[in-house]
């Protein structure tokens, strides 16, 4: 049986590649989001059909699956729009408040009240995020349309984590991914067509990058993360995804020569420490 913590690490690394790929081959954020989902479905669907791993969900699960697809697609779409209306730093900070929303919602919706470790780890990790991004982020923060969109993105992401946890407790991961990503793909395609986003006439390099986004960032990344969500607490998984900023910074430093300051290194280490606290045994925190 796969170790869910190892799967979570693989998932975080896989989805952390995405921002670096976007810088290599700039494409419309909505177009990129659509192909990321659609390519993953195109490759996953034949596999589950050949292996006969597709299952028909219980009638009570169809609505939550549909909602998961809309939530995930909306999160990606609003995330890109929030960057357009404000800036990437502010959008990243507000979106990364999702662990707080997951923790608050876990008790009433998952009947899994977060313990002291989770809240201590969350405070430590978010403190690290503040240090990593710098105090200038807060002095330049604007309470405008971009602010509201980024905050909404975090709420959508948290809602997706909570909803998918409930669905994954009752069905196979690959089946859930096929249905959910299909809904997201159709939803994002409609948005792209309605807003006139470019969907073809890309160079071979861009098609190659879109393929990597679909196969690695989406398919491998979210299969492993979904497995972790199924086996671990949704709160822990959500908080662990804060490490994306650390991994992305490291990958960008290696492959596209982005500068990494001592402040970013310290902030990243604090984020990892906060995540680590949530995985300690209960007896270590009194």
Quick summary of this structure?
This protein has 286 residues and is mainly α.
Architecture overview:
The protein has 286 residues and is mainly α. The protein has one domain (4-278). Helices cover 78% and strands 0% of the residues. The chain is built from 14 helices and no strands. The chain has helices at residues 4-16, 18-24, 29-50, 59-85, 88-95, 98-110, 116-133, 136-139, 145-168, 173-195, 204-231, 234-240, 244-255, 262-278. 46% of the residues are buried.
Based on the model shown, name its key terms.
286 residues, mainly alpha, 14 helices, single chain
The helicity comes to: over 70%
Mean pLDDT: 81
Largest beta-sheet characterization: none
Percent strand: under 5%
Please report the total strand number as a whole number: 0
Uncertain runs are none
C-alpha Rg, in Å? Answer: 18 Å
- The N- to C-terminal Cα distance equals 32 Å
Count of individual helical segments = 14
Which structural category fits the helices and strands? mainly alpha
Helix-strand topology string:
HHHHHHHHHHHHHH
Structurally, the number of domains stands at 1
Task: Please tell me what the overall shape is.
Answer: globular
